[in-house]
Design goal:
This protein is an alpha/beta fold. It has 2 domains: 76 residues, Orthogonal Bundle (434 Repressor (Amino-terminal Domain)); 155 residues, Endonuclease Chain A (Endonuclease, Chain A), CATH 3.30.870. The chain is built from 12 helices and 6 strands. Helix 7 crosses helix 8.
Length: 284
Amino acid sequence: MAQVPSPTIRARRLRRELRRLRDRTGRTAEEVAKVLGWHRTKVIRFELGHSRVMPKDLPPLLDLYEVSEQERESLTGLLRQARQKGWWSAYGDVLPDDYVGFEAEATSISTFESLYVPGLLQTEEYVRAIVRAGRSTADQDEIDRVVAARLARKALLSRDVPPALWVVLDEAAVRRMVGGPRVMRGQLTRLVEACELPTVEIQVLPFAAGAHAAMGGAFTLLSYDDPSLDPPVIYLSNDNSTLLLEEDRQVTRYRLMFDHLRAKAIDPDRSADLLARIATEVPD
């Protein structure tokens, strides 16, 4: 499967470029808005991603910023790509915020999970079990849509150049009996199989490791091919909310945290052996 440009990434790249161009002119966002006859918050909302840049809005901005013809063509192309729909738009009611759009173009995904097997490695039966547990009032159609959306995400690992996926799993995530013995045995078997993939590394963080830096919860670090264009982001989530962090200091903090987790966890080869052993210990 070929990689398709992510509208989410293109929209982020566009807003970062618009901020860079404004800084180059030495104007404040309020000054730009006043010159263009816009509401004073309109420019800053574009730059923060709180509002979408519309086709009619871009030309006056580029005229004011006195961009070159080459820059204009590039930014117009970014806007066009940003306005396209990714496959995930069809599941906007059941997928978290813009995360899938950020994930879609990542070249490296580093994730720590304390309670669940990561979504990219979940079996369909495991997905159904956790969806039913988390959405007790959902009807069958809603459950099916959530499951379909989560399974569609897994195509990421089948693209022509899949991302490098590094997972640190708390032992609790692989010991908890989700969906019953048959479902859990199948999920553990899937993890063992994933350990053999050349672009996947899995480490188990054992109970014996004691206290660690990420006891506050799960997180994912998404990195991209060209950090100067697309800096890495941190994604935090729980059942009720999601949060994307983009500031350098935030990313540095979580990158260091992930390094500490890897150092405390069992190495990938022994983790694969442990997962296989736990699978055999699941009762019939």
